[in-house]
Amino acid sequence: MTEHLFIKIRRFFGQADLVLLALCCGAALFGILLIASATHYTGSPRYVLVQSVALALGVVLYAFFSFVDVESAVSAKWKWIFGFNVLFILLLLTPLGVDPSQSGGN
């Protein structure tokens, strides 16, 4: 079992774009540092913890999606995905979830 895990880890480091991962982690760590600096006066590490968990979750998802061949799964259904995206973009034109008295409009 552990040898199978080591094979998977070796495969990840062989095919993943580690420079991209390092740059994204560096930017996220810089953001966490800025959040820590901005919220230092509150004495609560809540926002730093939330961002740190989000960073860890992002690294795990990056590792997961580096193993999954998304292109072959998505390419057959590109028309459905395109329609779904167009629908969600068109939803920006509707006032769903907006209270007119709170939106700052007339």
Topology:
Layout: H1 2-15, H2 18-38, H3 46-67, H4 70-75, H5 78-90
Helix pairs in contact: 2-3
Tell me the β content. Answer: under 5%
User: Overall 3D geometry?
Assistant: flat
Mean pLDDT: 84
Q: Helix and strand succession?
A: HHHHH
Distance between the termini: 65 Å
Count of discrete alpha- or pi-helical segments spanning 4 or more residues: 5
Which percent bin holds the helix content? over 70%
Radius of gyration: 21 Å
Quaternary structure state of the chains depicted: single chain
Structural class: mainly alpha
- Profile the largest sheet: none
Number of strands: 0
Poorly predicted parts: none
Brief write-up:
With 106 residues, the protein is mainly alpha-helical. It contains five helices and no strands.
Describe this structure in words.
This protein is mainly α and 106 residues long. The protein contains five helices and no strands. It starts with a helix and ends in a 16-residue tail after the last helix. The mean pLDDT is 84.
Supply the key terms.
single chain, 106 residues, mainly alpha
